[in-house]
Amino acid sequence: MKIFVCVKQVPDSETKIKFLADGSGVDTQGVKWVLNPYDEIAVEEAVKFKEKNPTAQVFVLTLGPKQRASEVLRTALAMGADEGIVINTSQDGDSYTTAKTLAKTIQSEGGADLILTGKLAIDDNGNAVGPMLAEFLKIPHVSVVSKIEYQANALKVERDVDGGAKEIFEIALPCLITTNKGLNTPRYASLPGIMKAKKKVLKEYDQAQLGIEPSDFKVKAGAFTFPADKAPVKMISGDATAQTSELVKLLRDEAKVL
Amino acid sequence: MSKILVFCEHHNGQLKRSSQELLQFAKSNSSDVIALIFGKEAKSIAAQTAYHGATTALTVSDEAYVSYNPELYTQAIQEAYAKTQATVLLASASATGKDLFPKAAARLNAGIVSDATSLEINGASVVAKKPLFAGKCFANHAFSNASLQIVLMRPNQLPVAAPDTSKTITIEELSVTKIDLKVLLKEIVKGTSEKLDLTEANIVVSGGRGLKEAANFKYLDELAQVLGATVGASRAVVDAGWVPHSMQVGQTGKTVAPTLYIAVGISGAIQHLAGMTGSKVIVAINTDANAPIFQKSTYGIVGDFADILPKLTEEFKRALHK
After folding, report:
1. Interface ipTM
2. Which B residues 65-84 touch A at CB under 8 Å?
3. Is the Cα torsion angle A193, A194, A198, A200 positive or negative in sign?
C-alpha cells in the first residue's frame, strides 16, 4: 500500500497577523510555521497503518517555499513517515492550483493507493484541496472522517456531518480521505524519531516544472482588513437576580435579539 | 447580468434558512435565479424557493438523491451547469456544501471560495469576503479564469425577508446520467440532538471548564430549551470527554455566527474565540473577572453558573412568555 499524506505549513495559532506595507498580503516575516493540526491527524493515521502493515510506504508531501516546507516535512518524518516530497514554490496559489500541483506530483510518483489529508487548513480555512485533488486524480473521496476501517480493497469510513450525525460510507481503493479530529491522537515525535528523520530522503520538485498554467489560478485574495473594533464590554453588576433581569432587559431592548 | 444557480438544502420538508438567505441575495442581484433542489421532496421545496426569489427550479427527484453521495451529486451539478450555463453558483458552507463543491469545482474548471461571510456581485464578477487566520483578519476574494464562480456562504450572514407566497415557479426535472459509483452510503447515524446544527443556530449557549463537571451541562440544556438554542462547548471539556466533538466551538471545532452567543464558564482561549467572534451579540458568564472572554463580549456577568443560570432561564421564560 502506497500512502501519500498531503500537509500544509500554517502559522502557529498564537501568531499575531501583520499586513505587508502595500496591503497586498500578510507579512510572513518572523512567523513560526507548524504542521497544520488536521494534517497531523492524517500523518498519524498513515503511520499507525504502517505499524500494523510494515510493507506500506508513507510519503508526505507539501507545497511551499523550500526552507519552511522542509522543516514541516521533517516533523512528519519524525512521526514516522518514510519519505518527504517538497514542491518548491514562492507563489501564493489557490485551492485549484494547489490541488492540481499535488495531483501532478502524485502522478509523477507513480500514483497512490490511499491519500490522506486534513479536512481543512487553519490559516485560510479553504476546505477544498482534498476533494479537488481526488477529482483531478479521478479517484473517489470522503471528507471529514473520524473513523476508518481497513478492508481488502475498500475502506469503511465514518464522516461527521451537521448536528452530530454521521454518514457511513464504503469507498473503493484507491481513494482520498480528509481527516477530522477524533480519528486519532497524533503522537509527539520522539527523540529517536527526530534523529532518524534527519537521514530520511527529502525529494524535491519545482512547481514551475509541473505544467501549472496561469489559467489555473482562479481565486485571488486582496483588500486585507482587520475586524472592526468592538464596543467595550458592558459589565452587569448586582446580585444574581439583578444581573439576570438586567441582562434579559438589555438583550430585549438594547441589543434587540430576543 | 449574472445567471445565478442556488443549491438549496432542505430538512423535514422545509427549505433551510441558509438557502432562503442565498435566494434572497441572488434575487436582489439578478433576474435569473435558478434553484437547484435534490431529493424526493424537491418539487414541493421548489414552491418554497419561489417565495424567496427563485425564478426557475431544477429538480432531481430521483430516489438516489435523497441522501448525500459525492459522485452522484457532482454528476448532477455538472449537468445542471451544462444546461443553465450559470456564471455564479451559491451554496451554504454546510457539511454537504463543503464536500460537494470543491469536487464539482475541479470538474467544471471553476473557482471556489468557501466560508464567505459577505458577498458582492458587480456585473459579471463576484467578490467574496471571508475571515482568515481564525478571524484575525479578512480578505476579499476575486475570481479570474473561472467560467463559473462558486461561493459557499456561512449561514446567518445574510437577511431573509418574509416569504412572498404569491410567487409561482416553473419546475423542470433534470434527468441525470447514471454512473458507476465507487463510494456508497451504507448508513446514517443520527446525532444525539435533533436541534439545528451549531453552524446554523440562531442562538448558541456554550459551556466550558467553569461548569465543573459534565452533569452540569443540564443547566445549559434547560436554558437552551427555553431559548430554542443549540448547545456548544469549549475544547477543554470536549478533550475531557464531557461532551462529543460535534459540540466543540473553536479553531479545531465548529465556527459559529449566531445572533446571540452565551458563553458560560469559558475563559476565552484564542482557539475558542476563533470559532465564535463572528456572533452578533456575545454574553459571557464567568467567575473570573479577568477572563479574556469578557474582552470579546457585548455583555458580561461575573458570577457562578449555579447561581446565574437557573435565574436566567426563569427570566427568559418570562420575557418570552413561556
Report:
1. 0.93
2. 67-68, 70-71, 74
3. positive
